[in-house]
Structure formats: structure tokens, C-alpha cells
Amino acid sequence: MYIVYLFILFFIYSSLVSEYKNKFIIKYSLIFLCVILAVGAGLRDEQLWGDTLKYIDAYRFDIPTWHDFNFSIELDAYSEKGFILLSSIIKTFTSNEVIYFLVISFLTFFFLIIDFRKFSVYPLIGICVYISRFYIGRNLIQIRAGLAIAIAMTCIYYAHKRQLLKFLLVIIIGSFFHKTMLILIPFYWINKLDIKKIHVVACLVVSFLIAAFLTPYIRMYITDMAVEMNYTNYVDSYKAYGVGLSNPMIYYQSILLLLFTFYQNKLQDKIDYYTEIRNAYLYSTVFLIVLSQWAIASGRLSTIFATFEISIIPSFLYLFNHHFRWAAYIVIGICMSLIFYLNYSSHVFNTI
Question: Are 177 and 83 spatial neighbours (Cβ–Cβ below 8 Å)?
Fold first, then answer.
């Protein structure tokens, strides 16, 4: 439980500094906290966090040095050439697995700092949301996806600017580290649509209907796509099948999306890229609902743009005046602490 108390202290500090609104303190607090998180991810317990031993074995026995690298290399552990290349470059300088994980962690948090500063109105609250929801699953377990998502999130900036080539470039670079980033490509054209509140509600209703009644019809398509991308474990393994519409995260994301949507008039002028963030979160939530029968597929695809909770949740602080804002901090702190505890305990206790 001490790790939860540490998170609570972390959140209290972030709340105080955020309310103080000193840009210098916020900037360097963000960097300092990201450094701590990167070190923590790098100095992981290899027995505690899933996939770590897989990465260690691949690094020790399969990854060549830079001089022997070529794009025809095939690994059992993963297939993304960008990540193999990155691992190869690191191995050219050291065979130490701890340094390997540290380099990847620091590279990931380098891009995350850019994301926090660009997309979160309260960056320190945003990093607390990230720790609660994503840090354990990405930076301690799914490190390829963690790096890929940190890079690919910037695509919504280029969607906002209507710069298609840069939008595609960011996604393609991210896909070199995890192929699932390619699922973001249609977002550029979806974001061009004039999506209103009623359309958001309609998308949610249709998604629930598809998940409830049409799952057998999309099973074949999902399976074919998983085979094509070499991710058959997403749809055909003992861990692949989910609990369907009983998944509480479906309702958690749906509520956040609806709140963010229906308070548009109060939030839109205060939040850069409001429309893109809302549309991205809608995109995420639709995947989470429609693919709810497949736990891994729905989780891996929806989590990419779900990361914009680092923008959405802190933005709710704008809905309260100064006298009541501390109550909002408390509510957000309690919710994030509970989610962090559930995430941490589910991984640790399952491992032990």
C-alpha cells in the first residue's frame, strides 16, 4: 500500500503547484517527475512485470549489434523493425539490460513531456492521470506500445493544422515501434467532419448496439486483420476474450466523453485542440465498446487515444470557480488513487 500513499503525496504536490501557476516551477517539476518515473521504469523488477523477461531474452540472444543489423531480421518476441533497430543501436554500446530499459524509458518520457506540455492544461495533474491509468501497463510492461503512443499522440496537432503528410509521418514512425499505430490513419478524415454533441451520443448508442448484437459479424474481419498484422494473440488466446459490455472501463470512458462533450461551451476556448481531443477520445471509446468481446484487441486499440485523458480530466477543473476547485482536486485525486491501486494490485498480485 505504500506505493499508493506515495501516489497520493505526488498528487497533492501536483495540485498545489498547479494552483500556484508558476510556469517555471511547473515546467521543472514536470521534468523532474518524468525523470523519476523513467528511472523507476528502467530499474524494474524483472520477475514482477509481465513481458520483461521476454524483452531481456530477446536483447540477450536475438538482437544483433548495429553492424550486423538488417531489416530481414525476424524475432519471436516482436516484429517491429524500428524497435529492433533501436535495441540494436543500444546493444552496440552495452549489453546491460538495465541500461537498455533505462534508455527506452527516457526516450519514451522525452516524447511524453512534449505531449504533457502541448495537450494538458494542467501538466502535473495530467501526469498523475497518466501514472494512474497508463504507467504500469505501458512503461513497465508494454514498452513498445508506450514509446509508439508517446510519439503518435502528436498526430492530432497535424490533424488540427490539416497537414496530412506530417500527420502520416508521425503515425508511420510510431508504427515502426508498434504496428497498432496504423489504426489512427482514418482519424485525419474523421476529424474533418463537423461532429456535434448529438453525433457523439449517436456514435455511442450505435457502438453499444453493434457490441450487443453484431459481434459475430465482425469476428471474421477482426481475426483477418490480426493475422495480417501478426497479432493473433489479440483475438485467439486464453487471455484474448473479454467480458463484453460488463467491462467497467467502457462506462468510465463513456462518462468522461459525455462530460467533455456537453461542457464544450465552457471548455472549448480554454483548451487548445479541444475538437481534436474530443474526436480522438470518441475514436478510442468506439473501439473499446465495439471490440469489447476481445479484451486485448479492445484494450490495445482504444488505449492509444485514451491517453488524452491527460487533457480531459484536468480540464474539468475549469468548471469550478476558485472556491470550489479544491473539491474538484479532491474528487480527481480520490478517483485517480483508486484506479492506480486497482491497476497496481491487479498486476502485482497476479504475478505473485
Answer: yes
Cα 278 to Cα 121: distance, rounded to the nearest angstrom: 14
The rounded distance, in Å, linking the Cα atoms of 311 and 262 is 16
Q: Which of 18, 32, 11, 219 is nearest to 109 (CA)?
A: 32
Question: Residue 166 and residue 103: Cα distance in Å, rounded?
Answer: 26
Whether the Cβ atoms of residue 184 and residue 304 lie closer than 8 Å to each other: yes
CA 150-151-153 angle, to 5 degrees, is 70
pLDDT per residue over 203-253, tens digit each?
999 999 999 988 777 766 666 665 555 555 555 554 555 678 999 999 999
Distance CA 108, CA 87 (A): 14
Phi and psi torsions of 114, nearest 5° = -60, -45
Dump strand ranges (E) for the chain: none
Q: What are phi and psi of 11, to 5 degrees?
A: -70, -40
Are 292 and 326 in contact, with CB atoms under 8 Å apart?
A: no
Cell reading at 32: 523532474
The identity of residue 302, as a single letter, is S
CA distance 137 to 145: 9
Mean pLDDT over the full length of the chain = 90
Answer whether 0.70 is exceeded by the pTM.
yes
Contact 318, 21 (CB under 8 A): no
